[in-house]
Amino acid sequence: VQLVESGGGLVQPGGSLRLSCAASGFTFSTATMWWVRQAPGKGLERVSAINAGGSITTYEDSVKGRFTISRDNTKNTLYLQMNSLKSEDTAVYYCATAGGSRGQGTQVTVSS
């Protein structure tokens, strides 16, 4: 399993970022996928999940209405569109499989 996240960066409050996760080494199109995050000094937090076909999504309460998870099974890629970003969204974001594999993460910093 290989997962490579990208798209993080520094953004002002209220701004947007789109994270991507390129997956390989497993059958991506049959896998439920997660975005999780870890803020400084805190544990891992589940942010969002999407089923294999992309028809079912779930979100942690604090990101509902602001974040959108999606996937392109033809490209083996998972996405997270993040809008209306807040300082409390600052964290390292990882994509992860249901089995617990995750990538190296991408840093998202929301600050003015």
What does this 3D model show about the protein?
With 112 residues, this protein is mainly beta. The chain is built from no helices and ten strands. The protein has a six-stranded mixed β-sheet with strand order 2-10-9-4-5-6, with no helix packed on it. Strand 4 and strand 5 form a beta hairpin. The protein is globular and about 40 Å long.
Portion in beta strands: over 45%
- What's the total number of strands? 10
Shape: globular
Helix content: under 10%
| Strand order, sheet with most strands | 2-10-9-4-5-6
Helix vs. strand class: mainly beta
Number of helices: 0
Give a brief rundown of this model.
The chain has 112 residues and is mainly β. It is built from no helices and ten strands. A hairpin with a 5-residue loop joins strand 4 and strand 5.
Helix-strand blueprint:
Layout: E1 2-6, E2 9-11, E3 17-24, E4 33-38, E5 44-50, E6 57-59, E7 67-72, E8 77-82, E9 91-97, E10 106-110
Keywords:
112 residues; mainly beta; 6-stranded mixed sheet; 10 strands; 0% helix
